[in-house]
Design brief:
Blueprint lengths: L4 E7 L4 E6 L5 E6 L4 E5 L4 E6 L9 E6 L5 E6 L4 E6 L5 E6 L6 E6 L5 H8 L4 H4 L13 H4 L9 E6 L5 E5 L3 E6 L5 E7 L5 E9 L5 E9 L1 H5 L1 H35 L1 H13 L6 H11 L4 H11 L1 H45 L1 H4 L6 H36 L6 H14 L19 H4 L16 H8 L18 H17 L6 E8 L3 E11 L10 E5 L22 E10 L2 E8 L8 E7 L27 E2 L7 E3 L5 E7 L4 E6 L4 E6 L9 H19 L21 E3 L14 E2 L1
Parallel strand pairs: 19-23
Antiparallel strand pairs: 1-27, 2-3, 3-4, 4-5, 6-7, 7-8, 8-9, 10-11, 11-12, 12-13, 14-15, 15-16, 16-29, 17-18, 17-28, 18-19, 20-21, 21-22, 22-24, 25-26, 26-27
Helix pairs in contact: 5-9, 5-15, 6-8, 7-12, 8-9, 9-11, 11-12, 11-15
């Protein structure tokens, strides 16, 4: 068998806490102690990008998980209790959501179901493109919003499983929409895996006793409801994911509108505020401007405002700027807010239809009443956007006439009089709090405040409003959306998001799982493999075996000559990962090395190891370490697929069997070495060898000065972290698993 070929080595400035290979690309994600997320390429371990911590995401990364297609990377943040989805191409944050507890582990899987039911369902799943126009792209400052709308990817369902302390486990379809919150689990989740057929969820938890001694528990939960309702679950998840991305689209649109308003339109209000504060007369602002309009006479304060602060040239430029800002806001309302809210109404209406189809969707917990409330809230938001359009249209006409005052025509005179009468009628418009003079009417709709509008639009003379008020049947009809005339667009938007959040929360109600673990205090030279069927109703014979690591290094299946006694050595496992369904990649430490430096990276082939004849009988009244003598023990053949780790105190490993690569991390968490696992070792140049030797010797001296427990790694996925038991493993099809009745390891 070919040996492993080293393709990269690097010293890193900050200790690495977590490593995760991309499922189908030569990329590895690293999270360090400073909260930085790094992405490196296999070739020369070249850095692709880094994402620095910030106040929005947080600084304490606690776990990593790749989406199965390798396009999105999820990482959890402990200090802010959030899960963040990041674009693997651009290092941009696509989506984030809060969780109740800091996530200690995550697992992102794709549903593998080729049944004709799902295939035919997928073809007709989303018809929205036939009825809805494509949403226009947002301005370049919010370019990433286009990526958000593509988060769904392929039709096939994928689920992000998040676990944390206090038995916290939640499932998110497409990493966005929560479809389940699980209870009845004790302890802190250390690793978990959802089977690809959705029939069971396996969880490994750590429970601390009163003496602070850790116990490792393995639990298998029946998730057959998700499997039996897969087509309905996929349709519902995609609908709610559409809704979530549309809400973000509307938020970004509103942000663009606020930016367009704040740049220019505040200037007029600020100058008039200063004028009101400095004028010494008791006359109202309306009287000041009307006197100038009718008699051509202005007070000294008004002259100073017009001649020194505004000026003719300044008024023309300000008028053009305000007209441009209003036009930008108007376009955003028409093309983005209205289009987005119409799409939102479409998808919510379809979800309501699903909720009323109780035969298929009732098991998923859809609530028609909550969905109806969300539809009404979206309708109110749409009406408020239409109201804003009317205010913009009227303000544009009045402002144009007001700024053309010095060169106006007789036709404009009526507009100016109306403008002065409406906007300068009383000093109460000098804001309720006395903060500013409010002559510009659009900005009040864009302020993110709970207070009522300072100048709500007048509904007098509106024939529809009058008709509704006079109608006994229409006045309180549920068919009409409420308008909230006293509230801002931001307020109605927040109310809509709250209703939709309630709607989203309502539904939160054949392969094998493999678990690899060690018991260093009981049997330091053994690795244990536990296997369970993904279907909790199916029993698996020969479900537990121990692998003996006291094996000659160069033994092979075909070897007929026994190895000499000197070739035998005792090893303990530091870390282990499933390379593929039949191979386990492990980092071993020699128990006979007095200096505790010898490390070996090896591939263990499990075909012969798992074909044992003996059966282990569980006694649920005893802890597992009390039953080790009855566990069948199998020997291993390493062949020549092993490599001694020279000049690095290897402690952890991350692997990708599809890309045939592995990354080894040292005990001090700063030194990494990358290998191609199925490539022949090439002769290295002398210069490269000398440089590597010098760097490794420096690293070795650094490691010798640090105190680091060889069994460190508490809180990491993989082997390590418990005194009485250590758990490792990325299951061959998934990862860990089992027991409806919670077995204690």
């Amino acid at each position: 068998m070919p040996a492993f070929r080293q393709v990269g080595e690097k010293q890193l400035p900050n200790p690495i806490l977590y490593m995760a290979w991309s499922p189908n690309r030569d990329l590895i994600a690293l999270a360090n102690t400073s909260g930085e997320l790094l992405l490196h390429r296999l070739a020369n371990f070249q850095r692709v990008w880094s994402l620095l911590p910030n106040e929005n995401t947080g600084k304490e990364i606690t776990s990593l998980a790749w989406r199965p297609d390798g396009k999105v990377l999820a990482f959890s943040v402990g200090d802010t209790k959030q899960v963040v989805l990041c674009d693997a191409e651009k290092a941009e944050i696509l989506h984030l959501f809060a969780v109740e507890y800091p996530a200690s582990c995550m697992h992102w899987m794709e549903v593998q179901d080729d049944s004709s039911t799902l295939s035919s369902f997928s073809e007709s799943e989303d018809e929205s493109s036939r009825f809805l126009p494509k949403l226009p792209s947002l301005p370049k400052s919010e370019e990433k919003s286009d990526e958000v709308t593509n988060l769904l990817g392929e039709v096939r369902l994928n689920i992000l499983v998040v676990g944390g302390p206090s038995g916290f486990v939640e499932l998110y379809a497409y990493g966005l929409y929560k479809i389940a919150t699980l209870g009845g689990i004790s302890g802190t989740c250390r690793s978990l895996g959802l089977s690809s057929d959705l029939k069971s969820l396996s969880v490994i938890t750590e429970i601390r006793s009163t003496e602070d001694n850790p116990e490792i528990h393995y639990i298998q939960l029946d998730t057959g409801l998700l499997s039996s309702c897969l087509p309905e679950l996929t349709k519902m998840a995609r609908k709610f994911t559409h809704i979530s991305t549309l809400l973000r689209y509307l938020r970004l649109s509103l942000t663009c509108m606020c930016e367009a308003w704040e740049d220019i339109l505040m200037q007029m209000d600020l100058r008039l505020t200063k004028f009101v504060q400095e004028k010494n007369t008791s006359t109202q602002v309306q009287d000041e401007f009307l006197e100038l309009l009718l008699w051509g006479h202005a007070s000294s304060e008004l002259q100073a405002l017009l001649m020194n602060q505004l000026t003719v040239k300044g008024l023309k430029m300000l008028g053009q700027s305000i007209d441009s800002s209003y036009s930008s806001i108007q376009k955003l309302v028409i093309s983005h807010l209205q289009s987005g809210s119409e799409a939102l109404l479409y998808h919510l209406s379809e979800v309501k239809g699903m909720a009323l189809w109780k035969q298929k969707f009732q098991p998923l917990g859809l609530d028609p009443a909550a969905i109806e409330d969300a539809i009404v809230a979206v309708g109110s938001f749409t009406l408020k956007a239409s109201e804003l359009l009317q205010v913009i249209d009227k303000s544009m006409k009045n402002f144009k006439a007001f700024f053309r005052w010095l060169y106006m025509t007789q036709k404009d005179l009526a507009f100016v009089a109306d403008f002065l009468s409406e906007h300068f009628s009383n000093e109460e418009l000098f804001d309720r709090k006395g903060k500013y003079f409010n002559v510009e009417r659009v900005g009040q709709y864009l302020k993110d405040e709970d207070e009522d509008l300072v100048s709500p639009p007048s509904m007098e003379g509106n024939q529809w409003v009058t008709f509704v008020k006079q109608s006994t049947y229409l006045k309180d009809s549920p068919l009409l959306f409420p308008t909230y005339p006293q509230k801002s667009l931001h307020f109605v938007k927040r109310m809509m998001e709250g209703s939709i959040d309630l709607c989203l929360q309502k539904p939160a109600k054949a392969g094998m799982h493999y678990v690899v673990f060690c018991m260093p205090d009981i049997s330091p030279s053994k690795i244990y493999i536990l296997r369970r069927a993904t279907d909790p109703n199916r029993s698996v014979p020969k479900g537990l075996v121990a692998l003996n690591l006291n094996t000659p290094l160069n033994s092979s299946i075909d070897d007929e000559t026994p190895a000499p006694a000197s070739a035998y050595s005792s090893y303990s496992c530091l870390d282990a990962r499933f390379y593929d369904d039949e191979t386990l990649t492990v980092v071993l430490r020699s128990l006979e090395d007095d200096e505790n430096k010898m490390r070996i990276l090896t591939q263990l082939h499990l075909n012969s190891a798992v074909s044992w004849d003996e059966e282990f009988t569980w006694d649920l009244t005893l802890r597992l370490e009390q039953q080790t003598e009855g566990i069948p023990v199998q020997g291993l053949t390493w062949g020549n697929q092993s490599r001694e780790m020279d000049n690095i105190k290897a402690q952890f490993v991350a692997v990708n069997g599809i890309r045939k690569v592995a990354c080894v991390l040292s005990a001090n968490l700063r030194h990494v070495r990358v290998f191609e696992m199925d490539a022949e070792e090439e002769e290295e140049e002398e210069e490269r060898a000398d440089e590597s030797q010098e760097m490794s010797l420096d690293q070795d001296r650094l490691e010798d000065t640090m105190t680091y427990q060889s069994d460190a790694g508490e809180g990491r996925d993989g082997v390590g972290g418990a005194e009485e038991a250590q758990v490792a493993g990325q299951g061959s099809q998934d990862i860990l698993d089992e027991t409806a009745g919670s077995d204690t390891l």
